[in-house]
Amino acid sequence: MARVTLYSKDGCPYCDRQRALLRDGDDRVEEVNLTRSPQAMTELLKLTGGRRIVPVIVRGARIEVAPDGGSEIQ
Q1: Distance between CA atoms of 65 and 68, rounded to whole angstroms?
Q2: Residue 73 domain-assigned?
Q3: In a domain, 30, yes or no
Q4: Taking the chain (74 residues) in consecutive chunks of 10 residues, what is each chunk's mean pLDDT?
Q5: Structural domain includes residue 60
Q6: Cys bridge to 70: 16, 22, 36, 53, which one at CB 3.0-4.6 A?
Q7: CATH number, position 12
């Protein structure tokens, strides 16, 4: 079982879809919700190369930025 981190925000349909897909798998998922934890934005910007977008999925060294579309963070 791998550890997966999902960066998301409230009201994001792309985040909802990724959350559902991840729940169906065998991975242990930790969610970082930027609506509730805005201090995590610094971490997100490092992962995305400065893009303010979610969802972002981190599996080990693999980073997926908005794999099926995404929502910008204002």
Answers
A1: 9
A2: no
A3: yes
A4: 91 96 88 97 97 96 94 90
A5: yes
A6: 53
A7: 3.40.30.10
